Amino acid sequence: MPRKARILLANMPHHIVQRGHNREPVFLADEDYQYYRDNLFEWKEKLDIRLYAWCLMTNHVHLLVEPGDRPETVSLLMKRLAGRQAAYVNKLEGRRGSLWEGRFKASVVQAESYFLACCRYIELNPVRAGMVRGPRQYKWSSYRARIGVEKGLELDGHEELRRLGRNGEQGVAAYKEFIKAGVPADELAFLSEAWSRNQLTGNRRFVDEIERRVGLRIEHRRPGRPRVGDE
């Protein structure tokens, strides 16, 4: 069966996921996480990619990024990150071979409906995995920087985040409440299916619009609850 086409589009958010080879651990020590994180911030600047959310789990990574006018920079970013991490780990462990699955997953996100939902999905990964009780306790995600308790790892701004409050303090308080509500089960299933199948994270009108733009039929998900803006 041919692989499903992966869609990358200019000036739109993308939920990116890359897993370790055979789902084996990629990060074993703090230094491993830090090396990947430092490369992420270095290369997103070099490639002029906006970084909205990130989370490094033991055997996979989640990113919410937006390329500029050149959507291929997303592939370049993932190539640089994967290559550097593989070289780093192989040298450290005196090994050879693949560290990652061959292809990363990508889902273009309808910002006005699902941007905040994707941020929450990504930053609550460690909580769902039972690694921590709350996202603030996990230091390898964007949540601590987003709420202002970790400096030097600033995220790019987005209109959907600015809508949460008239100022930074109000926006942070609103985002904390949004996170505290957790990810509803149907939203969790919808977002997970979108990235795992390289589909679009959006409502039916959004899917139709993107299909017209790229000239491809993009298989949509099974019918479920009406998404935001479907009705």
Automatic annotation (TrEMBL):
* Superkingdom field: Bacteria
Q: Supply the Gene3D superfamilies for this chain.
A: Transposase IS200-like
Database matches in SUPFAM superfamilies: Transposase IS200-like
Task: Give the Pfam families listed for this entry.
Answer: Y1_Tnp
Q: Which SMART domains does this one have?
A: Y1_Tnp
- Write the signal peptide boundaries: none
Domain Transposase IS200-like, by residue range, is 9-125
InterPro entries with a match to the protein in the record: Transposase_17, Transposase_17_sf
What name appears for this protein in its UniProt entry?
Transposase
Taxonomy, top ranks, is: Bacteria, Pseudomonadati, Pseudomonadota, Gammaproteobacteria, Cellvibrionales
